[in-house]
Protein backbone atom coordinates (compact mmCIF):
# COMPACT_ATOMS: atom_id res chain seq x y z
CA UNK A 1 0.00 0.00 0.00
CA UNK A 2 1.54 3.34 -1.00
CA UNK A 3 1.05 6.96 -0.07
CA UNK A 4 -0.98 7.38 -3.24
CA UNK A 5 -3.71 5.15 -1.72
CA UNK A 6 -4.23 7.37 1.32
CA UNK A 7 -8.02 7.36 0.74
CA UNK A 8 -8.06 3.82 2.20
CA UNK A 9 -6.83 5.09 5.56
CA UNK A 10 -9.17 6.31 8.26
CA UNK A 11 -9.12 9.94 9.25
CA UNK A 12 -7.79 8.86 12.65
CA UNK A 13 -4.85 7.04 11.05
CA UNK A 14 -3.98 10.00 8.86
CA UNK A 15 -4.27 12.43 11.75
CA UNK A 16 -1.97 10.55 14.10
CA UNK A 17 0.55 9.68 11.40
CA UNK A 18 0.71 13.34 10.38
CA UNK A 19 1.42 14.18 14.02
CA UNK A 20 4.16 11.52 14.14
CA UNK A 21 5.76 12.96 10.99
CA UNK A 22 5.72 16.47 12.49
CA UNK A 23 7.31 15.07 15.64
CA UNK A 24 10.05 13.41 13.58
CA UNK A 25 11.17 16.80 12.27
CA UNK A 26 12.25 17.95 15.73
CA UNK A 27 15.60 16.15 15.62
CA UNK A 28 16.21 16.05 11.89
CA UNK A 29 19.92 16.51 11.27
CA UNK A 30 20.85 15.59 14.85
CA UNK A 31 20.54 11.80 14.80
CA UNK A 32 23.87 10.75 13.31
CA UNK A 33 23.64 7.92 10.77
CA UNK A 34 20.04 7.16 11.80
CA UNK A 35 16.94 8.92 10.50
CA UNK A 36 14.89 11.11 12.80
CA UNK A 37 11.79 8.95 13.32
CA UNK A 38 8.57 9.91 15.08
CA UNK A 39 6.46 7.45 17.09
CA UNK A 40 3.14 7.80 18.90
CA UNK A 41 1.38 5.29 21.17
CA UNK A 42 -2.39 5.84 20.98
CA UNK A 43 -5.15 4.27 23.09
CA UNK A 44 -8.87 4.38 22.57
CA UNK A 45 -10.21 6.43 25.45
CA UNK A 46 -13.75 6.77 26.73
CA UNK A 47 -14.37 9.10 23.81
CA UNK A 48 -11.68 9.99 21.30
CA UNK A 49 -8.33 8.17 21.00
CA UNK A 50 -5.61 9.70 23.18
CA UNK A 51 -1.82 9.80 22.88
CA UNK A 52 -0.18 8.05 25.83
CA UNK A 53 3.40 7.98 24.53
CA UNK A 54 5.50 10.17 22.25
CA UNK A 55 8.98 9.58 20.94
CA UNK A 56 11.49 10.96 18.47
CA UNK A 57 14.91 9.51 17.70
CA UNK A 58 17.31 11.00 20.25
CA UNK A 59 20.42 13.05 19.53
CA UNK A 60 23.10 10.87 18.02
CA UNK A 61 20.55 8.23 16.97
CA UNK A 62 19.88 6.44 20.28
CA UNK A 63 17.47 5.60 21.75
CA UNK A 64 15.08 5.04 18.86
CA UNK A 65 11.72 6.76 18.75
CA UNK A 66 9.69 3.62 19.54
CA UNK A 67 11.62 2.96 22.74
CA UNK A 68 11.14 6.55 23.91
CA UNK A 69 7.40 6.41 23.20
CA UNK A 70 6.96 3.00 24.87
CA UNK A 71 8.84 4.18 27.95
CA UNK A 72 6.50 7.15 28.29
CA UNK A 73 3.40 5.04 27.72
CA UNK A 74 4.34 2.32 30.23
CA UNK A 75 1.50 -0.14 30.87
CA UNK A 76 -0.84 2.01 28.78
CA UNK A 77 0.92 0.64 25.66
CA UNK A 78 -0.77 -2.75 26.13
CA UNK A 79 -3.57 -3.04 23.58
CA UNK A 80 -2.71 0.35 22.04
CA UNK A 81 -1.86 1.35 18.46
CA UNK A 82 1.64 2.51 17.58
CA UNK A 83 2.12 5.03 14.76
CA UNK A 84 5.70 4.97 13.45
CA UNK A 85 7.11 6.93 10.52
CA UNK A 86 9.64 4.20 9.62
CA UNK A 87 9.46 0.41 9.91
CA UNK A 88 10.67 -0.64 13.40
CA UNK A 89 14.19 -2.06 13.34
CA UNK A 90 14.70 -5.81 13.61
CA UNK A 91 18.49 -6.09 13.90
CA UNK A 92 20.41 -6.17 17.16
CA UNK A 93 22.71 -3.19 17.44
CA UNK A 94 23.50 -0.97 20.39
CA UNK A 95 19.95 -1.51 21.68
CA UNK A 96 17.33 -4.29 21.42
CA UNK A 97 15.26 -4.29 18.21
CA UNK A 98 12.30 -1.92 18.30
CA UNK A 99 10.04 -4.56 16.73
CA UNK A 100 10.71 -6.87 19.70
CA UNK A 101 10.06 -4.00 22.12
CA UNK A 102 6.66 -3.35 20.56
CA UNK A 103 5.83 -7.05 20.91
CA UNK A 104 6.99 -7.16 24.55
CA UNK A 105 4.94 -4.11 25.48
CA UNK A 106 1.78 -5.68 24.08
CA UNK A 107 0.66 -3.19 21.43
CA UNK A 108 -2.17 -4.61 19.34
CA UNK A 109 -1.66 -2.66 16.11
CA UNK A 110 1.25 -0.90 14.38
CA UNK A 111 0.74 1.63 11.59
CA UNK A 112 3.88 2.36 9.57
CA UNK A 113 4.42 5.15 7.07
CA UNK A 114 7.45 3.83 5.15
CA UNK A 115 9.34 0.54 5.05
CA UNK A 116 13.04 0.64 5.90
CA UNK A 117 15.46 0.38 2.93
CA UNK A 118 18.23 -0.84 5.28
CA UNK A 119 19.07 -4.41 4.22
CA UNK A 120 19.25 -5.40 7.88
CA UNK A 121 15.55 -4.57 8.23
CA UNK A 122 13.85 -4.58 4.79
CA UNK A 123 10.49 -6.01 5.90
CA UNK A 124 11.79 -8.13 8.77
CA UNK A 125 10.45 -5.68 11.33
CA UNK A 126 6.96 -6.16 9.88
CA UNK A 127 7.42 -9.96 9.92
CA UNK A 128 8.35 -9.99 13.61
CA UNK A 129 5.25 -8.00 14.48
CA UNK A 130 2.89 -10.13 12.41
CA UNK A 131 4.34 -13.39 13.72
CA UNK A 132 3.50 -12.13 17.20
CA UNK A 133 -0.13 -11.64 16.17
CA UNK A 134 0.06 -7.85 15.91
CA UNK A 135 -1.96 -6.19 13.17
CA UNK A 136 0.40 -4.24 10.87
CA UNK A 137 -0.54 -1.70 8.23
CA UNK A 138 2.11 0.10 6.18
CA UNK A 139 2.02 3.00 3.73
CA UNK A 140 0.02 5.56 5.70
CA UNK A 141 1.17 9.01 4.49
CA UNK A 142 4.19 7.29 2.96
CA UNK A 143 5.05 10.13 0.58
CA UNK A 144 5.06 12.67 3.39
CA UNK A 145 7.20 10.45 5.62
CA UNK A 146 9.69 9.71 2.85
CA UNK A 147 10.01 13.43 2.19
CA UNK A 148 10.76 14.04 5.88
CA UNK A 149 13.44 11.32 5.73
CA UNK A 150 14.77 12.21 2.28
CA UNK A 151 18.36 12.49 3.48
CA UNK A 152 18.40 9.08 5.16
CA UNK A 153 16.70 7.40 2.21
CA UNK A 154 19.14 9.03 -0.22
CA UNK A 155 22.16 7.91 1.78
CA UNK A 156 20.87 4.34 2.14
CA UNK A 157 19.58 4.02 -1.41
CA UNK A 158 22.15 6.00 -3.42
CA UNK A 159 25.17 6.25 -1.14
CA UNK A 160 25.07 10.05 -1.19
CA UNK A 161 23.30 12.86 0.66
CA UNK A 162 20.14 14.59 -0.50
CA UNK A 163 21.24 17.83 -2.16
CA UNK A 164 19.31 21.10 -2.04
CA UNK A 165 20.51 24.01 -4.16
CA UNK A 166 19.63 27.41 -2.70
CA UNK A 167 19.91 30.46 -4.95
CA UNK A 168 18.86 34.08 -4.37
CA UNK A 169 18.37 35.83 -7.71
CA UNK A 170 17.94 39.56 -8.23
CA UNK A 171 15.37 41.14 -10.52
CA UNK A 172 18.04 41.42 -13.22
CA UNK A 173 19.01 37.74 -12.92
CA UNK A 174 22.14 38.10 -10.80
CA UNK A 175 23.34 36.38 -7.62
CA UNK A 176 26.01 38.95 -6.73
CA UNK A 177 28.51 41.47 -8.04
CA UNK A 178 32.06 40.60 -9.01
CA UNK A 179 34.57 41.78 -6.41
CA UNK A 180 31.89 43.15 -4.09
CA UNK A 181 31.60 40.33 -1.57
CA UNK A 182 28.13 39.60 -0.25
CA UNK A 183 25.45 41.65 -2.02
CA UNK A 184 21.92 41.74 -0.50
CA UNK A 185 19.44 40.21 -2.93
CA UNK A 186 16.50 39.61 -0.58
CA UNK A 187 15.20 41.19 2.61
CA UNK A 188 15.66 40.21 6.24
CA UNK A 189 12.59 37.95 6.39
CA UNK A 190 13.75 35.85 3.43
CA UNK A 191 17.25 35.66 4.91
CA UNK A 192 15.77 34.27 8.11
CA UNK A 193 14.02 31.61 6.04
CA UNK A 194 17.45 30.62 4.69
CA UNK A 195 18.69 30.32 8.27
CA UNK A 196 15.90 27.80 8.93
CA UNK A 197 16.96 25.86 5.83
CA UNK A 198 20.42 25.62 7.36
CA UNK A 199 18.91 24.20 10.54
CA UNK A 200 17.16 21.51 8.48
CA UNK A 201 20.36 20.28 6.79
CA UNK A 202 23.41 18.49 8.13
CA UNK A 203 25.87 20.46 6.01
CA UNK A 204 26.20 23.74 4.12
CA UNK A 205 28.44 23.64 1.07
CA UNK A 206 30.04 26.38 -1.04
CA UNK A 207 32.80 26.61 -3.59
CA UNK A 208 36.10 28.25 -2.75
CA UNK A 209 35.21 31.30 -4.85
CA UNK A 210 32.34 32.09 -2.50
CA UNK A 211 34.48 31.39 0.56
CA UNK A 212 37.19 33.80 -0.62
CA UNK A 213 34.98 36.56 -2.07
CA UNK A 214 32.31 36.68 0.65
CA UNK A 215 34.25 35.52 3.75
CA UNK A 216 30.99 33.98 5.07
CA UNK A 217 30.31 32.47 8.47
CA UNK A 218 27.88 29.86 7.07
CA UNK A 219 26.32 29.31 10.47
CA UNK A 220 22.87 29.63 12.04
CA UNK A 221 22.31 33.00 13.68
CA UNK A 222 18.69 32.70 14.80
CA UNK A 223 18.31 33.31 18.56
CA UNK A 224 18.10 29.98 20.38
CA UNK A 225 19.20 27.95 17.37
CA UNK A 226 22.86 28.87 17.22
CA UNK A 227 23.88 25.37 18.31
CA UNK A 228 22.04 23.89 15.32
CA UNK A 229 24.67 25.15 12.86
CA UNK A 230 25.57 22.29 10.49
CA UNK A 231 28.95 21.18 9.20
CA UNK A 232 30.40 23.68 6.72
CA UNK A 233 31.87 22.14 3.58
CA UNK A 234 34.25 24.14 1.38
CA UNK A 235 35.14 22.76 -2.07
CA UNK A 236 38.69 24.06 -2.25
CA UNK A 237 41.03 21.97 -4.44
CA UNK A 238 44.12 24.15 -3.90
CA UNK A 239 43.21 25.36 -0.39
CA UNK A 240 42.86 29.02 -1.31
CA UNK A 241 40.64 29.74 1.70
CA UNK A 242 42.60 32.17 3.93
CA UNK A 243 43.44 30.87 7.43
CA UNK A 244 42.20 34.26 8.68
CA UNK A 245 38.72 33.55 7.28
CA UNK A 246 35.78 34.12 9.61
CA UNK A 247 34.95 30.43 9.20
CA UNK A 248 37.59 29.78 11.84
CA UNK A 249 36.51 32.44 14.33
CA UNK A 250 36.19 31.13 17.88
CA UNK A 251 32.60 32.35 18.03
CA UNK A 252 31.65 30.30 14.98
CA UNK A 253 30.81 26.58 15.06
CA UNK A 254 34.02 24.55 15.12
CA UNK A 255 33.68 22.12 12.22
CA UNK A 256 34.89 23.20 8.80
CA UNK A 257 35.27 20.34 6.33
CA UNK A 258 37.50 21.21 3.39
CA UNK A 259 37.73 19.06 0.26
CA UNK A 260 41.21 19.39 -1.24
CA UNK A 261 43.20 17.95 -4.10
CA UNK A 262 46.46 16.06 -3.59
CA UNK A 263 47.94 18.91 -5.64
CA UNK A 264 47.26 21.44 -2.83
CA UNK A 265 50.24 23.22 -1.29
CA UNK A 266 51.40 21.48 1.91
CA UNK A 267 52.05 24.76 3.71
CA UNK A 268 48.48 25.91 3.07
CA UNK A 269 47.19 22.56 4.31
CA UNK A 270 49.18 22.81 7.54
CA UNK A 271 48.09 26.42 8.13
CA UNK A 272 44.42 25.56 7.73
CA UNK A 273 44.72 22.49 9.95
CA UNK A 274 46.22 24.71 12.65
CA UNK A 275 43.03 26.79 12.43
CA UNK A 276 40.94 23.67 13.04
CA UNK A 277 39.96 22.68 9.49
CA UNK A 278 39.11 19.04 8.83
CA UNK A 279 40.75 18.49 5.42
CA UNK A 280 39.87 15.51 3.22
CA UNK A 281 41.90 14.82 0.07
CA UNK A 282 39.83 13.51 -2.83
CA UNK A 283 40.58 12.56 -6.42
CA UNK A 284 40.76 15.34 -9.02
CA UNK A 285 41.56 15.80 -12.71
CA UNK A 286 44.84 17.18 -14.01
CA UNK A 287 43.63 20.73 -13.32
CA UNK A 288 42.67 19.87 -9.76
CA UNK A 289 38.93 19.90 -10.46
CA UNK A 290 36.59 17.52 -8.65
CA UNK A 291 33.87 15.37 -10.15
CA UNK A 292 30.63 16.38 -8.34
CA UNK A 293 29.74 12.67 -8.10
CA UNK A 294 32.94 12.06 -6.14
CA UNK A 295 32.23 15.00 -3.83
CA UNK A 296 28.86 13.59 -2.83
CA UNK A 297 30.26 10.08 -2.54
CA UNK A 298 32.85 11.31 -0.04
CA UNK A 299 30.24 13.23 1.93
CA UNK A 300 28.12 10.06 1.99
CA UNK A 301 31.02 8.00 3.32
CA UNK A 302 31.43 10.58 6.09
CA UNK A 303 27.76 9.99 6.91
CA UNK A 304 26.19 13.31 5.90
CA UNK A 305 22.57 12.76 4.86
CA UNK A 306 21.54 16.21 3.63
CA UNK A 307 23.51 19.10 2.14
CA UNK A 308 22.46 22.68 1.37
CA UNK A 309 24.50 23.98 -1.56
CA UNK A 310 24.67 27.79 -1.36
CA UNK A 311 26.96 28.65 -4.27
CA UNK A 312 28.61 30.07 -6.14
CA UNK A 313 27.43 30.14 -9.72
CA UNK A 314 30.01 27.78 -11.22
CA UNK A 315 29.70 25.27 -8.38
CA UNK A 316 25.90 25.28 -8.70
CA UNK A 317 26.12 24.85 -12.47
CA UNK A 318 28.40 21.81 -12.18
CA UNK A 319 26.08 20.00 -9.77
CA UNK A 320 23.06 20.85 -11.92
CA UNK A 321 24.79 19.64 -15.09
CA UNK A 322 25.72 16.40 -13.32
CA UNK A 323 22.05 15.78 -12.42
CA UNK A 324 22.85 15.63 -8.70
CA UNK A 325 20.52 18.35 -7.40
CA UNK A 326 17.40 16.91 -5.75
CA UNK A 327 15.71 20.14 -4.71
CA UNK A 328 16.00 23.77 -5.79
CA UNK A 329 15.08 26.59 -3.41
CA UNK A 330 14.89 29.67 -5.61
CA UNK A 331 14.50 33.03 -3.85
CA UNK A 332 13.74 36.06 -6.01
CA UNK A 333 13.99 39.68 -4.91
CA UNK A 334 13.25 43.03 -6.52
CA UNK A 335 16.79 44.37 -6.02
CA UNK A 336 18.89 45.20 -9.09
CA UNK A 337 22.59 44.26 -9.02
CA UNK A 338 23.53 46.08 -12.21
CA UNK A 339 27.11 46.54 -13.38
CA UNK A 340 29.53 43.60 -12.99
CA UNK A 341 26.73 41.30 -11.87
CA UNK A 342 27.32 37.57 -11.58
CA UNK A 343 24.65 35.82 -13.62
CA UNK A 344 22.62 33.13 -11.90
CA UNK A 345 22.86 29.66 -13.49
CA UNK A 346 19.07 29.35 -13.15
CA UNK A 347 15.94 31.45 -12.86
CA UNK A 348 12.20 30.81 -12.97
CA UNK A 349 12.32 30.46 -16.74
CA UNK A 350 15.33 28.14 -16.93
CA UNK A 351 14.66 25.41 -14.38
CA UNK A 352 16.24 22.21 -15.75
CA UNK A 353 13.95 19.48 -17.12
CA UNK A 354 12.84 16.90 -14.61
CA UNK A 355 11.90 19.36 -11.86
CA UNK A 356 8.46 20.53 -10.82
CA UNK A 357 7.37 23.34 -8.51
CA UNK A 358 6.10 21.91 -5.21
CA UNK A 359 5.80 24.96 -2.98
CA UNK A 360 5.74 28.75 -3.12
CA UNK A 361 5.99 31.26 -0.29
CA UNK A 362 6.21 35.03 0.06
CA UNK A 363 8.51 36.88 2.47
CA UNK A 364 7.52 40.50 2.17
CA UNK A 365 8.49 41.57 -1.35
CA UNK A 366 10.55 38.42 -1.85
CA UNK A 367 9.34 35.09 -3.16
CA UNK A 368 10.48 31.50 -2.74
CA UNK A 369 9.71 28.74 -5.22
CA UNK A 370 10.79 25.20 -4.35
CA UNK A 371 11.27 22.61 -7.06
CA UNK A 372 11.90 18.90 -6.64
CA UNK A 373 13.27 16.38 -9.06
CA UNK A 374 10.65 14.04 -10.50
CA UNK A 375 12.89 12.11 -12.91
Automatic annotation (TrEMBL):
Cofactor(s) it depends on:
Zn(2+)
Q: Which residues cross the membrane?
A: none
Under the heading SUPFAM superfamilies, the entry gives: Cytidine deaminase-like (SSF53927), Dihydrofolate reductase-like (SSF53597)
Keyword annotations for this protein? Hydrolase, Metal-binding, Multifunctional enzyme, NADP, Oxidoreductase, Riboflavin biosynthesis, Zinc
Q: Give the reactions, separated by semicolons, that this protein catalyses.
A: 2,5-diamino-6-hydroxy-4-(5-phosphoribosylamino)-pyrimidine + H2O + H(+) = 5-amino-6-(5-phospho-D-ribosylamino)uracil + NH4(+); 5-amino-6-(5-phospho-D-ribitylamino)uracil + NADP(+) = 5-amino-6-(5-phospho-D-ribosylamino)uracil + NADPH + H(+)
Under which pathway is this protein filed? Cofactor biosynthesis; riboflavin biosynthesis; 5-amino-6-(D-ribitylamino)uracil from GTP: step 3/4; Cofactor biosynthesis; riboflavin biosynthesis; 5-amino-6-(D-ribitylamino)uracil from GTP: step 2/4
Q: Where is the signal peptide?
A: none
Q: Name one GO molecular function term.
A: diaminohydroxyphosphoribosylaminopyrimidine deaminase activity
Q: Does the entry feature the keyword Transcription regulation, yes or no?
A: no
**Record-annotated residues binding NADP(+)?**
168, 210, 214, 221
Looking up NCBIfam families in the UniProt record yields: eubact_ribD
Q: What is this protein called?
A: Riboflavin biosynthesis protein RibD
The gene name on file is: ribD
